[in-house]
Specification:
395 residues; binds zinc ion
């Protein structure tokens, strides 16, 4: 639309404001078909087809999201408490240099380098950080005193909650994007009393920056959408003498309300990451919520057959498909919001997407539930009823 105005700039200059608006509206109409339930369904069907069986656990992303950003409430805290209180999976080793010390709902990854450890995300609060991150590292033979950096993928409490405590205790530096530091300092998008306070501003990174510690380098790709400064870290992992490239998608759900610019940013970020993944040969797709990458089941499979093929190595085509699913679901959600703007009510509710999941095969429905969530009966009921941690293997 901007381009068409520019090319007709001289002619338009002579028109009144009203005439200009009418002309621009006419110019825009053919390129923007009206949003319909049919187009939503088409995007969802496309996402489902792209996801196939192996990426089915991504389909809850395609569920309708509320048009208004959730505000702190007792109901939200109650839902969050249920997610946090699920029994944690056992900590485990995904690669020679990558370990999982996360919870059932949210992840914490440890990258082991020749000069110390880099922790990626710090869970909901200090208690979890002490129990699961420190405790898990000790169970895996890692020394928490070797944590040199805590990377916070984005400024939501389930990822930064334990960051300051760990930084203080082990003299580690905390890394976040400039944009999300600002958000954490000036006004949290979401908050809950179950989350400990955001860390104090420390190392600030922007898109393309790298962090090198000993023999390892993390490249920070900013993938705006979930938050405006979401970091998706890319780094090398090793398994049985082979090198692979991992990417942790740093922010997944569309829990920001009817914000079309953000959805457009999210779609663009998935497209850009597809290119980066192809260029860099990213073949290990990871998430900071275990429900979005099948971490728990893969850790179990890895532990059962440590010398077999590494279940975390999905291959570049799977990474590409996963990003396509995220982008296609974002397009479905964008279309729903467009429908709402036209006074239409999108269907169906979340229940249709929960049925996509085979309970217990990868993770629980509860664990992949986007947070914060709508408190409407439609989106609340089915997941609450399905919530159990069948994959938990101790704490
Ligand atoms: Zn988040």
């Amino acid at each position: 639309m901007v381009r068409s105005i520019t090319s007709r700039g001289l002619a338009l200059a002579a028109l009144s404001g009203t005439a200009l608006a009418a002309l621009v509206a006419c110019t825009a109409t053919p390129s923007a078909p009206p949003a319909t339930q049919g187009s939503v369904d088409q995007f969802v069907a496309q996402a489902r087809q792209t996801a196939g069986e192996d990426l089915k656990f991504l389909m809850p992303i395609c569920a309708p999201q509320p048009a208004v950003r959730a505000v702190p409430s007792a109901a939200m805290d109650e839902g969050l408490a249920k997610l946090i209180n699920q029994p944690a999976p056992a900590p485990g080793q995904a690669f020679d240099n990558l370990y999982y010390v996360g919870a059932a709902w949210v992840s914490a990854w440890v990258l082991k380098t020749s000069e110390g450890l880099i922790l990626i995300d710090a869970l909901n609060n200090n208690r979890e950080a002490a129990d699961l991150i420190e405790g898990g590292m000790r169970r895996l033979g890692l020394d928490p005193a070797q944590i040199r950096y805590v990377v916070v993928t984005h400024g939501h409490g389930d990822h930064y909650g334990g960051a300051q405590m760990l930084a203080d205790r082990f003299k580690a530096r905390v890394v976040a994007s400039e944009i999300d530091w600002k958000m954490m300092e000036t006004g949290l998008e979401f908050d809950s009393k179950l989350w400990d306070r955001p860390p104090r501003r420390d190392v600030s990174v922007k898109d393309g920056d790298t962090l090198t510690l000993g023999d390892s380098t993390i490249r920070f790709v900013i993938t705006p959408g979930h938050t405006l400064g979401t970091i998706s870290p890319v780094f090398e992992v090793r398994s049985g003498g082979r090198k692979h490239t991992a990417m942790i998608w740093g922010g997944t759900s569309f829990n920001f309300g009817r914000d079309m610019l953000r959805l457009d940013g999210y779609i663009a970020a998935t497209e850009r990451m597809r290119k980066i993944a192809a260029e860099m040969g990213i073949d290990v797709p990871l998430s900071n919520h275990p429900g979005y990458d099948g971490t728990v089941a893969k850790l179990k499979a890895r532990a059962a057959a440590p010398n077999g093929p590494n279940p975390f190595v999905s291959g570049q085509p799977v990474v590409d498909r996963a990003l396509q699913v995220l982008g296609t679901c974002a397009r479905a959600q964008k279309t729903r919001f467009q429908m709402m703007a036209q006074g239409l009510q999108p269907q169906p509710g979340l229940a249709a997407f929960v049925d996509d999941l085979a309970p217990g095969t990868l993770n629980t429905a509860q664990a992949v539930r986007p947070f914060p969530f709508s408190a409407t009966a439609d989106e609340h009921g089915p997941l609450g009823a399905h919530g159990h941690a069948s994959d938990a293997a101790g704490s």
